Amino acid sequence: MDEFFDLGKVGTIHWKPLSAETPDVDLPDVPTGPGVRKNLPDLTVEEQRLLQTTGDWDGKLPKHLADQELDIVRRAEKTPIQDTGDGYIYEVDLGNGHRWKGKGKEDGTWCRFSKTGENCTDLGEEDLEEATTEEDLEEARKVGGIFPAYALKEWGKYIYAGRKLGIVQTPEGPQAWYVRTGSGGEARGADPVAGEPARFYGVAKLQQINEFNKTPIPEKTQKWFMKPPAGGRMGEGNENVFQWLITQKLFEDLPTPTTSITVLSRPKDVADLQILNNWLRENGIEPGKGYAVGEEIVLSGEHFLIEEIP
Fold this sequence. Notes:
Low-confidence stretches: 1-36, 123-133, 139-146
Largest sheet: 7 strands, antiparallel
Oligomer: single chain
Mean pLDDT: 75
Structural class: alpha+beta
Strand order of the largest sheet: 1-2-7-6-5-4-3
Helix content: 10-25%
Distance between the termini: 45 Å
Number of helices: 7
Radius of gyration: 24 Å
Shape: elongated
Number of strands: 17
Number of domains: 2
């Protein structure tokens, strides 16, 4: 059965399987400079990464990825092709194993053809006649329209100590993020404030120690929601991910998913920590990366050893 979903600013996507006769397409290298594929505009580094990522995506693209491919299609040279009865008379080959075909000015429908399916959207007459200007692109970057290929996964599946947690897929690999509640203290400098996204690295069990002789203090253990080892609560090198998450408006607009699981903190054991850390591992994230069991850390002036990352 055909499926329809709203793509926001780029129209409505129509999804249906392609015929079995559609040939497999090898995924070539993405062009890295002008003139390599004469129909494509000059691509930024972010756009090259985008095409490398979407080259492996044969199903219907998420909204933010389809938006970004279509930005390239709008600016690209449209190659005339023979109408074989389906109404398509223009084509843009993205060079990553996928191509978009258009039906012309009277019917502005453009469809993305893949090995297993197609995405269709109406770009309209104006988009066929006028390329996106550099001012348009700059504005799109400001509001998050063009970023490296990020995607959300299992956002809000778990809630821990009031924090809504989620996974962000990035070109460099998956990351774990959460929505700050402010209970961990006020933001410092450019740190995210309450209600904004911040990165975390899993959870650990800490043993408080004497600052001077480093001996354990009896009955002084606690659980620690691991923040980035450097770069504040956002972490080093995560500015783009943070800015993109802000544009998704996950925090102001979306209610807590009905499928969310509230993980209760148990003072006497680490079962809750194991639940969250195992979830991260299942999503390709190693808890505690950048930290080590036995490492000494200082929190609010108190000294601790990382006793366990369960």
